[in-house]
TrEMBL record:
Name listed for the protein in its UniProt record: BTB domain-containing protein
InterPro entries on file: BTB/POZ_dom (IPR000210), SKP1/BTB/POZ_sf (IPR011333)
Organism of this sequence: Pseudocercospora fijiensis (strain CIRAD86)
Extent of the signal sequence: none
Stretches assigned to the BTB domain: 9-68
SMART domains noted in UniProt: BTB
Pfam families in UniProt: BTB
Length: 135
């Protein structure tokens, strides 16, 4: 519930024009990267804003959803980009971001979701693109 509620948030996370309100105590307890960034000795902690310009905003959304809810929706409206991001590609992006920010549980979840999608989409162009993205 707190993931979509900016009340009492004390941190803003920005990625390629998208912004999320977050709670330092929640994200810092689940992710070492955010714990270090929110430390009062760093600019991000002092200013209350973390910018992730190199990351995919859909993967960031999924990561934050996971941090708050221990899950993410790989097919919901928040995951669709302007060109329409296929869920199988989102799961690849989430696995990448999970590795980058050292979230092994998220990485495992993304792999399970990717595997479930691959079982029905393995003949599709989306699957071929996902394999290219992986390698």
């Amino acid at each position: 519930r707190l993931f979509h509620d900016p009340q009492y948030s004390d941190l803003t996370i920005e990625c390629q024009g998208r912004r999320w309100s977050a709670h330092k105590s929640i994200i810092s307890s689940r992710c070492t990267f955010f714990a270090k960034a929110c430390d009062g000795r760093f600019k991000e902690g002092l200013e209350g804003e973390i910018s992730l310009p190199a990351d995919d905003p859909h993967a960031v959304h999924a990561m934050l959803s996971f941090i708050y809810q221990c899950d993410y929706d790989d097919a919901g409206p928040d995951m669709e980009c302007d060109a329409g991001m296929p869920p199988i590609l989102l799961n690849v992006g989430v696995a990448v971001i999970a590795h980058k920010y050292d979230l092994p549980e998220l990485s495992s979840l993304a792999l399970r979701k990717f595997t479930n999608r691959a079982q029905t989409e393995w003949r599709s162009q989306k699957f071929a693109r996902a394999v290219r993205d992986i390698y």
